[in-house]
Design goal:
InterPro entries: CLCA_chordata, CLCA_N, CLCR, Ig-like_fold, VWF_A, vWFA_dom_sf. One of its GO terms (biological process) is proteolysis. One of its GO terms (cellular component) is plasma membrane. It holds the Pfam family VWA_2. It is a single chain. With about 900 residues, the protein is an alpha+beta fold. The chain contains 14 helices and 50 strands. The strands form 13 sheets. It has a six-stranded mixed beta sheet. Helix 2 packs across helix 5 (about 150-160). The longest helix is centred in the N-terminal third of the chain and has 21 residues, at about 45-65. The protein is globular.
Length: about 900
């Protein structure tokens, strides 16, 4: 109908937001475009919306105080789920769940009701999202153990926006400062009592460590005379962040380890996204304004380039194969899909059609364009209608053309989200602007069926309302140009198995196919549905697919090589079991070569990290260069936290071009487990000291280790991230990077020796092998940070190992040290070009000499008893002999 046709064309409009990119903005002193999304599992409750608003109002006041009257919250959007039906909520525009900065969701097994922020690790880099639970928002008996909601939110906002970290440490709650035991905190001026948590006795000291025993807890005074810090304990009367002057550089917390012993305020003003922002006068009102919107059923329009250049090679065939997969397998029931093609003008091939069964999917797939010819005007495709009713809809725009992009302003505020795909090496990368300003995704695809790029891209456009059980999950995606047999396997784990599909794409003639299930079934070519015109074969597994390893074989019966690919998709096994999910992204979407890029992959089951998996990233440039990088979760190099389910690596081979990112995750050896590792969350407050008396809170709800230590089982996942680009200055060679900063340096004393351990960095960040180490120590930690080269040097004969390998150095310093003296160690790595890494984390070690037992009156004195002493002298350089270890003569005294 004319109305439907007009509606379909209207979907083509995109939003123009003053030329800026999508996401949180700082407008003057006020933060705008903040998006908080409620998960569909959360029961509808209008009080929750009220509580969100009250939290932000309170948080705005706290933020203003914490930033010396500079910053506040100005504009907030609240996205309610589509299954909420009691309120009259306006339709969302470009607000989608996957882009939310704050998520309200039911508690997961790892964190419970603890507010936390998903951080990938780089100091000063923005986090992914803040996670809050309905009980935290609605139940005062839950939130009171974390502090006022507004101040808790400011604590999490600092994680999210500025990339700072917690100043407490539940794993190392105490440390020695000289001979004084201190609680890990900031500032050092936070006062309180050290009490046994079971009987409120004064704490006792462990004679081996010199620290308080494990059952000791530091209970801070609820009312403090110091004003910092919110990143230590947001429940106290403190109202500021630690400054450069008040920061506790000795505390063994994550803030010091990852941020080079810098204070929170120093990171905000020098490293964060808001560093150097001009301060303007604060307006009279700092109360935020709110917009409440609702995501509705998905509306997607495929806007497809059919100009003459698309006739080259197999582009039109590849387009049809990938778009057919999207229509048949990826887009969810009850969504609307339309198809528009364009050359110099736009034509509606299929108006918006409700997906309500196989017939509607077949009709849409049959309407995909088959031929190409004519000029290219991308804006003609985007502006294919008058824009009426496009708000909240999505466009998937595919083009290989080079036409100019000048249509942003003419479609201002349409409210549509544009996902852009550029095909081949000559497409205009300026198309990416349309995604940037509307919150869409950008991907670049290479030509050729063996790349499977277009299939991967269309597969990635799943629904994004927060309900993971409704999403199609890509398990396998691989292609080859080959003769003879093409063999592989894919694992179906116990979290998936419904709507499992095997898709084979071939170049010229259909191969023979054999698929073996783990136990009972064999499928051959006769079981596949053949679409000869699209050159695809599809096998749909009825019911729930068997759990275990599925094997497949393709036989190219031709005498010459042809391209073939296999794609396997599935969905959650039930609504009650969230699937294991993988997401990947780069630290930057654009690089000029001034610093290395980081590759990240997150593997989890509804917020619970999956560890010990094999994760491999493939980065491919539009010039054909391909890089295989193993991503690690080892807490070293690019990876900030060991065993947190976030796998990382540096990408240093930067040359000018457009790049795609693809990650494959396997657990074929069955080693993967769920993890107990938590970080970047509000402190559960054990209690306070009020009027001199300790008021204890109930113990923090325990984690069920049985659930988390369970075997994940064999699984396979394949995902892609958004494409990115590198543009080096003309005539400038590819950059040469130093070794990465060592972030896991550790020191212990074993008898009379110091034992240092760390993970080896590389020649270029965490790639290759470094040339040498420079290890220094001091009794002053600030000296190592501010003037590393003047600290005492330890020389040795230790050849660095390959990046990622464990390093160990053991030695005794030929000097005298008193019992209780604390030393601080730090290290740098150097490459063959004499480039040095940043100074490592600063680690402290203290020699504790256990007291000799008091003899009974009847015992004769043992005149030979001597106590070992850790030794130090005034020489600046200390020789360490041997490749891995030196032991000097030990000196003793009575």
């Amino acid at each position: 109908s004319t109305t439907m046709a007009s509606k379909a064309a209207a979907v083509l409009l995109l939003v123009y937001l003053s030329g800026s990119t999508f996401g949180i903005k700082l407008t003057g002193n006020g933060y705008t475009d903040i998006l908080i999304a409620i998960n569909p599992e959360v029961p509808e409750d209008p009080v929750l919306i009220t509580q969100i608003k009250e939290m932000f109002k309170e948080a705005s006041r706290h933020l203003l105080n914490a930033t010396k009257k500079h910053l506040y919250f100005k504009e907030v959007a609240i996205l309610v789920p589509p299954n909420w039906n009691k309120g009259n909520y306006p339709k969302a525009k470009t607000e989608v769940y996957d882009k939310a900065n704050i998520i309200i969701d039911e508690p997961n097994k790892l964190h419970g009701d603890q507010p936390y922020t998903l951080q990938y690790g780089e100091c000063g880099s923005e986090g992914r999202y803040i996670h809050l639970t309905p009980d935290f928002m609605l139940n005062d008996d839950v939130s009171k153990y974390y502090g006022p909601r507004g101040k808790v939110f400011v604590h999490e906002w600092a994680h999210l926006r500025w990339g700072v970290f917690d100043e407490y440490n539940e794993e190392k709650p105490f440390y020695l400062s000289g001979s004084i035991i201190e609680a890990t905190r900031c500032t050092i001026n936070i006062t309180g009592k050290y009490i046994h948590k079971h009987d409120q006795r004064d704490c006792t000291t462990d004679p081996v460590t010199g620290l308080y025993t494990e059952d000791c807890v530091f209970y801070p005074d609820k009312q403090q005379t110091t004003s910092a810090s919110i990143m230590y304990n947001q429940g106290l009367s403190v109202k500021e962040f630690c400054t450069k002057e008040t920061h506790n550089t000795e505390a063994p917390n994550i803030q010091n380890r990852l941020c080079g012993n810098r204070g929170v305020e120093e990171v905000i003003t020098s490293l964060s996204v808001d560093a150097g922002v001009a301060v303007v006068p604060t307006p009279p009102s700092i109360l935020p304004t709110f917009t409440v919107v609702q995501c509705r059923q998905r509306v997607v329009c495929l806007v497809l380039d059919v100009s003459g250049s698309m006739a080259a090679g197999s582009r039109m065939l590849n387009l049809r194969q990938a778009a057919t997969l999207f229509i048949q397998k990826i887009v969810e029931d009850q969504a609307y899909v339309g198809i528009v093609q364009f050359t110099a003008t736009a034509t509606i091939r299929e108006p918006l059609t409700l997906i309500d069964g196989e017939a509607s999917r077949d009709k849409l797939a049959g309407s995909l364009p088959l031929s190409a010819g004519g000029g290219t005007d991308i804006c003609a495709g985007v502006l294919g209608g008058d824009g009426d009713g496009a708000m909240g809809d999505a466009i998937i725009l595919l083009t290989d053309g080079e036409s100019s992009i000048n249509c942003q302003k003419s479609v201002n505020e349409s409210g549509a989200t544009v996902h852009t795909i550029t095909l081949g090496p000559n497409a205009n990368i300026d198309v990416k602007q349309l995604s940037d300003i509307s919150g869409g995704k950008y991907h670049n695809a290479a030509d050729g069926v063996d790349s499977n790029d277009l299939v991967d891209i269309f597969t990635s456009h799943t629904t994004s309302d927060g309900n993971l059980t409704k999403q199609t999950i890509q398990l396998e995606s691989t292609g080859l140009n080959m003769i003879g047999w093409f063999n592989g396997s894919v694992s179906i784990d116990r979290t998936i198995g419904n709507k499992t599909s095997f898709l084979v794409i071939y170049e010229r003639s259909p191969p023979d196919i054999l698929v073996l299930s783990p136990f009972t079934r064999t499928y051959d070519t006769s079981h596949f549905k053949h679409d000869a015109s699209a050159k695809t074969l599809t096998l749909d597994i009825e019911g729930t697919a068997e759990t275990g390893k599925w094997k497949y074989s393709l036989l190219n019966k031709e005498s010459t090589a042809q391209s073939m690919s296999m794609t396997v998709t599935s969905r959650a096994v039930s609504d009650a079991i969230p699937p294991v999910m993988v997401k990947t992204h780069m630290s930057q979407q654009f690089s000029n070569g001034s610093k290395p890029m980081l590759v990240y992959a997150e593997v989890n089951q509804k917020g619970v990290p999956v560890i010990l998996a094999d994760v491999m990233a493939t980065l491919k440039s539009d010039s054909g260069d391909q890089y295989e990088i193993q991503l690690l979760d080892n807490g070293a190099g690019a990876d900030a936290f060991r065993n947190d389910g976030i796998y990382s690596s540096y990408f240093t081979e930067l040359t000018t071009g457009k790049y795609s990112l693809k990650v494959k995750v396997h657990n074929n050896d069955g080693m993967a487990r769920f993890s107990l590792r938590r970080h970047s969350g509000a402190l559960y407050i054990p209690g306070y000291v009020v009027n001199g008396q300790v008021v204890m809170n109930p113990p923090k709800p325990p984690i069920s280790e049985d659930d988390l230590q369970a075997d994940v089982g064999s699984f396979t996942r394949t995902v892609i991230g958004e494409s990115f680009s590198v543009s080096l200055p003309p005539g400038v060679p590819p950059p040469n990077f130093p070794p990465n900063k060592i972030t896991d340096l550790n020191a212990e004393i074993e008898e009379d020796k110091v034992l240092l351990t760390w993970t080896a960095p590389g020649e270029d960040m965490d790639q290759g092998t470094a040339t040498a180490y420079e290890i220094r120590f001091s009794e002053d930690s600030d000296l190592l940070r501010s003037n590393f080269s003047t600290a005492h040097l330890v020389t040795y004969d230790l050849s660095p190992k390959k990046a990622g390998s464990p390093e160990k150095l053991s030695f005794t310093l030929f000097s005298i040290i008193k019992n209780g003296t604390t030393l601080f160690f730090a290290a740098k790595a150097e490459d063959k070009s004499f480039l040095k890494s940043e100074t490592s984390n600063i680690i402290q070690v203290t020699k504790i000499v256990p007291k000799a037992p008091v003899p009974s009156p009847t015992d004769a004195p043992d005149t030979s008893a001597k106590l070992p002493v850790f030794l130090i002298n005034t020489k600046k350089t200390y020789e360490v002999e041997g490749i891995n270890e030196l032991i000097y003569h030990s000196l003793f005294f009575k």
